[in-house]
Amino acid sequence: MKRFLYYPRLYTLIVSQYIKARMQYRADFFISSIGILLESGAGFFSLWVIFHSISKLVGWSYNELIFIYAFSLLAITPSQLFFDNIWHLSSHIRQGTFIKYYFRPLNMMFYYMSEVFDIKGFTKLALGIAAFIYASFKLGITWTFPKFILLLTLLFSSSLIMISLMIMASSTCFWTGEASSVLIFVFKFGEYSKYPITIFNSFFKLLFTYIIPIGFVAFYPSKFFLRPTETNILAYLSPVAGILLFVLAYLVWKKGVNSWTGTGS
Amino acid sequence: MNIVKIESLSKHFKILKRSEGFIGAFKDLFSRDYKIIKAVDNISFKVQEGEIIGFLGPNGAGKSTTIKMMSGVLEPTSGSIFINGYIPYKDRKKYVKNIGVVFGQRTQLWWEIPVIESFKILKEIYKIEPHIYNENMKLFNELFNLKALYPIPVRKLSLGQRMLCDIVASFLHNPKIIFFDEPTIGLDVSVKNKVQTLIKDLNKVKKTTIILTSHDTGSVEALCRRLILIDKGSIIYDGDILKFNRIFGAYRTLKVELEQFEGSSIEVLSKTIGEKFPCKLPIPVRKDDDGWISLTINQDEVKLQDVLNYIMKEYPIKDLKIEEIETEDVVRKIYEGELV
């Protein structure tokens, strides 16, 4: 039992200290929170503008789109809260500071990711929850206990997909020394997860389903709640896709860690 | 007991050959033209428990690569490495439980977090028993008054303070062996001395095996009894520092800046000095890039003062300084046959 609790306890200890330290930069917290509100709010606003002139988008209603949008916000939040250090990997690699992660008797991915906890993610979380409640209320979705469990499972696997894609993208820098552009590329694709995959042409439909599976981040899982009768077989694969991708991402990361040679000091 | 056993250890890197210029850079994108760099080439040595060993060598000699293999970061190309019962790169997680590492100017404490909280996190990571933790913290306070630094976040410490905290932290979990890579780099003289005293004292009390690298002779002399000199990936001297000191301790580099001295007359100066002050090997006279002329003098053979007097008589001197022998010069001397 004690062994089992080792990592959770350590994580709580490190992150609570980190948050305490970050709280000293209150202005930074408020300004970036407002930034995130505006950025995500603008997404909702553009939906609102579009639906001002049309009533349906390829068969999807305004409230259904809000639902998918909110689902994707909730699914992306964990990657921001727990895995934000992924954005700094390139600079650690280039400056050679990544070497310190080899020297503690810890899982290296755990040690690396535990160092940063982006509290601003909470703003996204709050906005996501509010929009989610609003949309499901407007759509008249009734929440039963099994449905709620299903929701949590799907959100978990969606988060895993997003996290895995980001880890794979940034791990390329173990070989190339620079991954910012690949990472931004993947992150931008993540933005498309906010829309029904059916609005894209067949090329992107295939791309977003099988190659960069962001359709699994919000669209396919949302269908369980929006159009239960139309759910296709792919939706059931969401948790499998999540777990498989994470395993793959972890292997890529591990391979990178083992092959990185470090800069001379 | 030998805690470190290293036999014919090598590390070779495959490096892309770089072409020059813009077009060359473009060509490199598609080039498959590699060359092999032998960063560490067939080295062997053993280390006894409790020893302090200094790795000395010029920049790029292979010190860091050796330390990286010893600390489990790099996998050797060939050879065997056995430390504290483990093969470092194979059993990384188990192996690093009983080692400490301090890498130059890169702190391993948590940047945003106060020093004392970093120590508490380390206590959890290494599962340090409370009585051991308290004992060590008491010892650290006795050796070096740390308390004033406790509440300060690591990013606000000066380089020297951070170095001292990093060193102390590396001893916290009572490791069997600690690696210091360039612990005194970039520090001013007084902090350098503090760092050296701290390492020395902790080694005395804890009997921890310590392996440190340095590019300057001074800090190795201050700390170690045994010295391993490494150049171009090979060990060129491994032995007692006293013997080393007896030979190189007498060497001084005399640097002079002369007025109206043309580059052509450096040969003349070299020749006349050689005639005037005959030694086993002629005194090397060379002109540095910055225009200074440096002479490496063995004081056992020739009085530095005599050489200086002679130069002053012949040429008007603008400026002068006297320095300890540089590592590069030591390496050259060894190749020339001294210390055998």
Summary?
The complex is a heterodimer of chains A (265) and B (340). Chain A has 265 residues and is an all-alpha fold.
Task: Using brief descriptors, characterize the structure shown.
heterodimer; A: 265 residues; mainly alpha; two-stranded antiparallel sheet; 13 helices; 2 strands; B: 340 residues; alpha/beta; Rossmann fold; Alpha-Beta Plaits; 2 domains; six-stranded mixed sheet; 12 helices; 13 strands; 36% helix; globular
Structural class of chain A: mainly alpha
Stretches with pLDDT under 50, minimum 5 residues of chain A: none
Total strand segments of chain B: 13
Series of H and E elements of chain A:
HHEEHHHHHHHHHHH
CATH topology of the largest domain in chain B: Rossmann fold
Uncertain segments of chain B are none
Shape category of chain B = globular
The largest sheet of chain A, given as strand count, sense and whether it forms a barrel, is: 2 strands, antiparallel
Oligomer: heterodimer
Task: Tell me roughly what share of residues is in helical segments of chain A.
Answer: over 70%
Shape of chain A: globular
Q: How many structural domains are formed by the residues of chain B? A: 2
Structural write-up:
The complex is a heterodimer of chains A (265) and B (340). With 265 residues, chain A is mainly α. Chain A has one domain. In chain A, 71% of the residues lie in helices and 2% in strands. Chain A contains 13 helices and two strands. In chain A, strands 1-2 form a two-stranded antiparallel ribbon. Chain A is globular and about 55 Å long. The relative contact order of chain A is 0.13. The model of chain A has no long low-confidence stretch (mean pLDDT 88). Chain B is α/β, with parallel strands linked by helices and 340 residues long. In chain B, 36% of the residues lie in helices and 28% in strands. Chain B is built from twelve helices and 13 strands. Chain B has a six-stranded mixed β-sheet with strand order 5-6-7-3-8-9, sandwiched between helices. In chain B, strands 11-12-10-13 form a four-stranded antiparallel β-sheet. Chain B has a three-stranded antiparallel β-sheet with strand order 2-1-4. In chain B, strand 8 and strand 9 form a beta hairpin. In chain B, helix 6 packs parallel to helix 7. Chains A and B meet through helix 1 of A and helix 2, helix 3, strand 5 and helix 4 of B.
